[in-house]
Amino acid sequence: MNDKVRVKGRLSLYMQWPLLLSTLLIIVTMVIGAMSIRAGAVMSGFTVLYILIALWIYLYQRKNVLAGMVEFSSEYAWIQKQLLSEMMQPYGIADEKGRLLWMNQAFAELLGVERHSRKSLMTLFPEMTKALLEDRSQAVSVHTSYQDRNYRMDLKWVALKDAGSLEITLGREFAEEYLLTVYLADETEVLYYKKEISDQKLVAGLIYLDNYDEALESVEEVRRSLLTALIDRKVNKYISAMGGIVKKLEKDKYFFIVKQHFAEKIMEDRFAILEDVKTVNIGNDMSVTLSIGMGMSGDSYIQNYEYARASIDMALGRGGDQAVVKDGERIQYFGGKAQQMEKSTRVKARVKAHALRELLESKDRLLIMGHKMPDIDSLGAAIGIYRIATSLNKKAHIVINEATMSIQPMLDRLHESPDHPDDLFLNGAKAAELVDANTILVVVDVNRPSITDSAALLRMVKTIVVLDHHRQSSEIIENAVLSYVEPYASSTCEMVAEVLQYIADGIRIKPVEADAMYAGIVVDTNNFTNQTGVRTFEAAAFLRRSGADVTRVRKLFRDNMAEYQAKADAVRRAEIYREGFVISVCHAEGLSSPTVVGAQAANDLLEISGIKASVVLTEYNHVIYASARSIDEVNVQVMMEHLGGGGHRTVAGAQLEGVDEQQARLMVKNVIDEMLEKGDVS
């Protein structure tokens, strides 16, 4: 055994030191002899004696030293083996396929198998995948569980050539080139206490009554206090059952605090208070609806409250009768089934009109922008804002990068009109050249920056105004100095028509402009059948008085034969799914405005008896455009948000990239299934 041992490195140098010292003594003896022969002779005797002893040690005792080293190494390996075997932390070694080759006693007891069992890690721990076995670049940690205990599994690959002592330590040979070392750390209690700490965190929330004044007005005066008391009791009982505290801030506003553990339970119940409060009926013609905003996972209680404020604003902006939870950067939506009631008062429109006028008067130039592939509502609203700017003697331009055929007839009329300058319409690049410190940007018919016609302008212009009737999503234009978003409005043209009546006296709208705005209302309401209220007809009446002609508008937006046939084909191909939903595909070959035709087909499919919602898929420029429509039972905005889109409660859409028609159809079906399971369909 000793012959096989090779002494290397520092140990080899250490064993040769007597020979090196002998050389030094010879040199010293020669120097002394040169100085004194007698002294040199004496020194020579001592040097010879030292050399003889050094040679005896190096030549004859070397084997004994090496034998002692081997004995120590064996004892050390045995101790190391015992330590690994009896170590409290579960430890094992697996081959390249994840099969256990060796495990210590703790690992075997944890698995309940013998130590020589060749179990596969992938069968024992579901989180162990082939991808983890193939990646040998670095050590990884996987969180897993086994028999009701949670573990952190640390994995590290070791090349056997770099761990030669491993075979001696474990007392066996391995044929594999690489070995996988596996450590298990029990983190059950750590995770338990982490969850306990998380569950004890406080969550801030706000509850607003959406239609408090309207509901009170529908009840006899002597019973109004009873209605208020019943609502208070519902809210207090619901929060108290969750171990929370609720405080009434105003007649229609509440602030509450619950522990995060109960907040999760509230979300699991999908905010049952939203439906429970609607059952309060003491003769009121109108059901009371709530908006709830909750904030959690903030760095402080103040931040949780700010999250709650942002959530309640979003819930109100999306139409009320729903709850929004802001969990850090994550936002979740619940409810939103009820149709939002139209506000009868125009006070908000008047306030926003005056604020808009103050902003316009402080700037020299106005840019107006809608969404990508603008429709007639976007164009009509932009024309209305343009008329406001010219009445205030401000230079204004409308930004349109790509004009679709759905608005081309109206654009042609505006170009032919002598009342409008040649530079009325600009593309995004030319508009960007005009931006300076005295420029204001008005965004109409869209509140999501990603789908605006020129998103770069949002970063360039400091003063931004947003007017829109679509429900807000988590993606909003954050730096807007004035935001007027009203989901109950039928169209942005309706909102702009109201602003026109309050922003200044004596504004005269040109007939072609009135036609554009009237057309926007007609198209978005599907001839006054969708999302139409009293104020919608009042806005239409105002535009009619301003010169809008119903016949001109009707002729302007008639379909050509190819579009009509494509729409009819989409209706013919319709598939009824889950009894209340209809899904179809509109083929866009040869159509100038395929997405518009798809939207029209979705409207036509709602005329089928028993249909709750319709979705039409249209492929255009390698993107699938989904147009969703409903009457009152399904919130298609929530449906389209699952697909990355948005819109209104009864009118919504989404753009699906990287999928074909069959995949898109399957995605829509999966969303419908999920909504039915969660009870999001009335």
* Mean pLDDT score: 84
State the separation between the terminal residues, measured CA to CA.
Answer: 85 Å
**Can you count the helices?**
27
Query: What general form does the structure show?
Result: elongated
| Unreliable stretches | 1-5
Strand order of the largest sheet: 7-8-6-9-10-11
Q: Could you tell me the number of beta strands? A: 23
Largest sheet: 6 strands, mixed
Please state the structural category: alpha/beta
Rg, rounded, reads: 40 Å
Helicity range: 40-55%
The proportion of residues in beta strands is 15-25%
**Quaternary organisation:** single chain
Give an overview of the whole structure.
By secondary structure, the protein is of the alpha/beta class. 45% of the residues lie in helices and 20% in strands. It has 27 helices and 23 strands. The strands form four sheets. It has a six-stranded mixed sheet with strand order 7-8-6-9-10-11. α15 (347-361) packs across α20 (492-503) and α20 (492-503) crosses α21 (511-524).
Features:
23 strands, 682 residues, 45% helix, single chain, disordered N terminus
